[in-house]
């Protein structure tokens, strides 16, 4: 057969989205003969997909008629006959063979079509259809110039495919476009484009040259049919298969290459703004050591200078060296040891010329340096490399040159800082002695090196992470609760300690053990304690112990505790879920005229009053339990022991016992607790005579004696700060810190950013908020400053 024919069988395709796709796939068209026809079906299919039409659902009414019309029009393709041969005569015998490719774009599709143009010996021109393609435009709806550029890229891809597959020698490959904007992009030599246009222009210039591109009017562009679609019955009436009429004309002068300029570059959004660069001439042939301050590590500075030396040597060499390097280039091969040594020498020479100009001038003349010079005691000398080295007294020693004559460098210089950091990392962040030894072994003598090394190591973040001390702050003033004269347990601290195992039930096979805990209530002013035994750490047991405490000791005005889960968890649970079986702790205390104050997390030092009482209670109870067999320890026995512990603690002296026989009474919390009926300070003045009058006056007198002695003998003992006596720098928002985690080793402690600070009444920051990443999630924590290690300040 000499022609291609199309067999169309679409009568059995359903009117669904799946049927639409099946119909398009049934049009087997690998060379794109009917691309202008199929692009209409692909456009309808995309519209159905974007609208979310189901695969087997009937088409919407507005799409039904359009699809039926296009589907029925495909029957006309059966009458389409396309010659198999490109041209009537054999292309291999033609005098000239040229590939002509046209591209075009619209808002719906982009297309390209290729033709073979041959000229025989008689000068007759023949044009044959080779390949056609049509693609839908991107959904994001780019601009028309960008779509035309995409069509040009499609034309270039078709040209590469045809040149690779066609088995004919070609004289030329010419590409046509009807967009002068795109032709200006391709011919541009002065402007720069944004990424979208730049990448596609680079793709076009990779395979073609600007002189291969021509302009074609839209009415003569056959690719216009692929971008706008054509009905099947009208396809043969277009120039899609024959090409434009001007292709059949012989080559003329007008066909020569034409240069296209950019179309309105000032308003084109795809062209980058023009940037003006200025050239500064520099007459000084030496390096400026201030440029070294741009580098943050010794290795990067050394490699940069080595690269400059390598490039300079490439310029000086008349012929290419063994590596093939010549002129200015970016060499990818690794630096040799010789190049790195030369770079080190250049850096050291530059620093010495800037810091020791007078010494170098004097020594170059053969004289000795001034005695007032910091180098006088080092007996400096200039080495053959032009470096200042220590003369010393090791000339006869069996040592290498670096050890006998180290290079002199100023300690307070950026290059010296880079060297110290470099060798400090090499000794794995050990102390000053290790670092100083590594610097000296490298053949460098730093002026004032010990002080410089100590200063740099003090600011080393890695050293702070490994061995930095945790932050501290001057001890704050005592709160008002500790200094007020008030009834016992008006201001109370609460904590839980334990557990202990008690015998709950005895059986033949043994005995059943249960756990018991103790809730310790501490009076913040008198240091008196009250202990309640609880059966569990749940909310119910704690509330019951709180109610027993209030019933025995009277209501409190304030309760203080840490952020233990037994306290915070109970408050949160009962506050958010109003159930009838349990009382809300916060609501219960508020009804009693009491407020609850929680210390910040991990701040056990803020509850030092009751923490000390817990330690005393544990020691007393441990002594008692040595005389009580564990098999006899029951709940009742434990409650009895706790009562005795409470009695012993409340009977302890608050101050040293006086040897004055006139003061036989010892100042203890029990002295006030046994007169609980009238704990407030008496309203009047009571003398010694009131001891022998009415009983209520005796009680008032004893209470007055307690508070007078408490104020005179005990209160002044709280004045002194036994630790944290010096003020430290306040942690500021934006500081980088290391957050202590007692569950892991120090190397695994997380780093965090301080997001908020909470200054006290004296302006000192003792509590902060930290933001850190834990288990892949961003979290915030409240922590005291004693639980962090400062790594970097906001200034750093």
User: Strand tally, please?
Assistant: 21
Percent in helix: 25-40%
| Strand proportion | 15-25%
Counting DSSP H or I runs of 4 or more residues, the number of helices is: 23
Counting helices, strands and paired strands, the structural category is: alpha/beta
Structural shape: flat
The largest β sheet comes out as: 5 strands, mixed
Brief characterization of the structure:
34% of the residues lie in helices and 18% in strands. With 796 residues, it is of the alpha/beta class. A 5-stranded mixed β-sheet has the order 5-4-3-6-7.
List keywords for this structure.
796 residues; alpha/beta; five-stranded mixed beta sheet; 21 strands; 34% helix; flat
In words, what does this structure look like?
The protein is flat and about 140 Å long. A hairpin with a 3-residue loop joins strand 3 and strand 4. It is an alpha/beta fold and 796 residues long. Helices cover 34% and strands 18% of the residues. Helix 1 packs antiparallel against helix 2, helix 12 crosses helix 14 and helix 20 packs across helix 21. The strands form 6 sheets. A 5-stranded mixed beta sheet has the order 5-4-3-6-7. Strands 14-13-12-15-16 form a 5-stranded mixed beta sheet, sandwiched between helices. A 5-stranded antiparallel beta sheet has the order 20-19-18-17-21, covered by helices on one side.
Strands, helices and their partners?
Layout: E1 3-5, H1 17-26, H2 35-50, H3 61-73, E2 81-83, E3 96-105, E4 109-119, E5 125-136, H4 144-165, E6 172-177, H5 180-187, H6 195-207, E7 213-215, H7 224-228, H8 298-316, H9 337-355, H10 357-364, E8 380-382, E9 388-390, H11 401-404, E10 407-410, H12 414-426, H13 432-441, E11 444-447, H14 449-458, H15 461-467, H16 480-483, E12 491-507, E13 510-523, E14 529-534, H17 539-553, E15 558-561, H18 565-576, H19 585-591, E16 595-598, H20 608-625, H21 635-650, H22 669-673, H23 695-714, E17 736-739, E18 751-759, E19 765-774, E20 777-784, E21 788-792
Helix pairs in contact: 1-2, 2-3, 4-6, 8-9, 12-13, 12-14, 20-21
């Amino acid at each position: 057969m000499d022609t291609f024919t199309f067999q169309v069988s679409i009568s059995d395709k359903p009117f669904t989205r799946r049927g639409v796709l099946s119909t398009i796939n049934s049009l087997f068209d690998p060379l794109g003969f009917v691309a202008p026809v199929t692009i209409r079906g692909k456009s309808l299919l995309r519209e159905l997909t974007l609208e979310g039409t189901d695969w087997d659902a009937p088409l919407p009414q507005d799409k039904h008629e359009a699809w039926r019309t296009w589907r029925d029009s495909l029957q006309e393709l059966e009458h389409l006959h396309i010659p198999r041969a490109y041209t009537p005569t054999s292309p291999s015998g033609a005098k000239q063979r040229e590939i002509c490719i046209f591209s075009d774009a619209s808002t719906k599709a982009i297309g390209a079509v290729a033709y073979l143009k041959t000229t025989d010996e008689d000068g007759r021109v023949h044009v044959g259809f080779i390949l056609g393609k049509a693609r839908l435009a991107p959904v994001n709806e780019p601009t028309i110039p960008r779509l035309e550029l995409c069509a040009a890229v499609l034309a270039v891809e078709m040209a590469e495919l045809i040149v690779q597959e066609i088995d004919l020698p070609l004289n030329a490959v010419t590409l046509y476009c009807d967009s002068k904007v795109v032709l200006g992009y391709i011919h541009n030599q002065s402007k720069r484009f944004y990424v979208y246009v730049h990448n596609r222009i680079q793709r076009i210039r990779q395979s073609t040259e600007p002189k291969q591109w021509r302009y074609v009017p839209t009415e003569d562009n056959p690719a216009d049919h692929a971008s706008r679609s054509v009905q099947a019955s009208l396809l043969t009436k277009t120039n899609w298969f024959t090409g434009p009429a001007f292709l059949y004309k012989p080559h003329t002068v007008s066909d020569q290459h034409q240069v296209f300029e950019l179309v309105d570059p000032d308003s084109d959004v795809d062209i980058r703004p023009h940037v003006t660069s200025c050239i500064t001439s520099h007459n000084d042939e030496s390096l400026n050591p201030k440029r070294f301050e741009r580098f943050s590590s010794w290795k990067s500075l050394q490699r940069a200078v080595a690269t400059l030396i390598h490039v300079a040597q490439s310029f000086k060499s008349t012929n290419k060296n063994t590596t093939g390097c010549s002129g200015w280039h970016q060499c990818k091969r690794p630096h040799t040891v010789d190049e790195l040594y030369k770079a080190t020498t250049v850096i050291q020479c530059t620093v010495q010329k800037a810091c020791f100009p007078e010494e170098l001038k004097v020594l170059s003349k053969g004289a000795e340096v001034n005695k007032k010079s910091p180098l006088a005691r080092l007996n400096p000398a200039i080495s053959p490399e032009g470096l200042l080295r220590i003369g010393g007294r090791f000339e006869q020693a069996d040592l290498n040159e670096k050890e006998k004559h180290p290079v002199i460098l100023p300690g307070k210089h950026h290059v010296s800082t880079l060297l110290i950091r470099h060798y400090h990392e090499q000794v794995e962040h050990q102390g000053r002695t290790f670092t100083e030894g590594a610097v000296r072994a490298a053949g460098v003598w730093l002026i004032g090196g010990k002080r410089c090394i100590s200063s740099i190591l003090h600011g080393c973040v890695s050293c702070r992470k490994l061995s930095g001390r945790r932050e501290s702050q001057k001890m704050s003033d005592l709160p008002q609760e500790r200094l007020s004269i008030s009834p016992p347990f008006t201001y109370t601290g609460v904590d839980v300690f334990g557990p202990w195992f008690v015998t709950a039930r005895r059986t033949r096979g043994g005995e059943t053990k249960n756990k018991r805990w103790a809730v310790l209530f501490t009076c913040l002013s008198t240091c008196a304690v009250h202990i309640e035994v609880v059966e569990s750490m749940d909310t119910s047991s704690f509330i019951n112990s709180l109610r027993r405490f209030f019933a025995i000791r009277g209501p409190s005005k304030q309760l203080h505790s840490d952020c233990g889960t037994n306290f915070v968890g109970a408050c949160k649970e009962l506050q958010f879920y109003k159930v009838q079986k349990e009382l809300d702790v916060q609501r219960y205390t508020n009804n009693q005229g009491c407020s609850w104050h929680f210390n910040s997390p991990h701040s056990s030092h803020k509850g030092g009053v009751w923490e000390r009482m817990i330690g005393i209670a544990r020691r007393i109870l441990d002594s008692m339990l040595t005389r009580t067999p564990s098999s006899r320890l029951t709940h009742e026995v434990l409650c009895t022991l706790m009562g005795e512990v409470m009695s012993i603690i409340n009977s302890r002296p608050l101050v040293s016992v006086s040897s004055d026989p006139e003061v036989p009474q010892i100042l203890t919390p029990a002295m006030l607790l046994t007169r609980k009926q009238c704990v407030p300070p008496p309203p009047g003045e009571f003398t010694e005579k009131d001891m022998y009058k009415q009983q209520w006056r005796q009680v008032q007198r004893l209470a007055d004696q307690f508070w007078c002695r408490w104020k005179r003998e005990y209160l002044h003992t709280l004045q002194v700060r036994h630790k944290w006596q010096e003020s430290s720098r306040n942690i500021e928002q934006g500081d980088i810190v290391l957050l202590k985690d007692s569950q892991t080793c120090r190397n695994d402690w997380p780093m965090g950013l301080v997001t908020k600070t909470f200054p006290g009444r004296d302006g000192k920051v003792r509590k902060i908020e930290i933001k850190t990443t834990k288990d892949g999630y961003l979290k915030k924590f409240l922590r005291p400053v004693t639980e962090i290690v400062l790594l970097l300040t906001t200034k750093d």
